[in-house]
Amino acid sequence: MKLFLLLLSFLIGGLVVQAQVSGVDSVPVRLSTLDARSDGNNARLDWKVVCFLDYAKFEIQRSADGSNYTTINIFEADYLRCRQPFDYNDANINGKAFYRIKVGDIDGRIYHSKIVAVTGKEKGFEINSLTPTAITANAILSMSSANTGNAQIEILNFYGVIVKRVSVKLNKGSTDLTLDMGNLAAGNYILSLNNGFSDRKTVRFTKL
Length: 208
Description:
- It contains 2 helices and 16 strands.
- By secondary structure, the chain is mostly beta strands.
- It has 2 domains: 30-119, Immunoglobulin-like (Sandwich), CATH 2.60.40; 125-207, Immunoglobulin-like.
């Protein structure tokens, strides 16, 4: 009986170890943070990654409109390098620039990071993204600002009526905010962001 229990314990332990190793091998390289901020006419990107593999490839991509991206730099990193923070400086940007990072692993799996924006305006700010665009409960609003400051979010329904207001403090660089949309009725809405300097950014979304 004791021999049987020892054998069963060995087999179960082996299965657990095998499952854990398999799980690690199947996890691609992932960005845990990504931030962008302006420094005069330059843009600085800072990011960290979670990497369980021995190889990672990064492509820094830039866009003028937030839709069409061009790769401006490519580099690779091993497991030890991936444990350190990354940064990149983009010199002499003109006006507004959007950035994302294309990440790949040794097996060719790739994904794109969230989008961050940098603006050369003294009081400039941008809405990077609102995810998901079809919302059931919570949504994450990603914003970028040239400096710190206060802003207000307004949610307008199909008839242009403001149904929700949220005050937010913008950081210099990127700010991510979780919004509770669970109490909104199903329908189409506009999210408006105003920083108090007669500049307004909007994005549309659907509440399911």
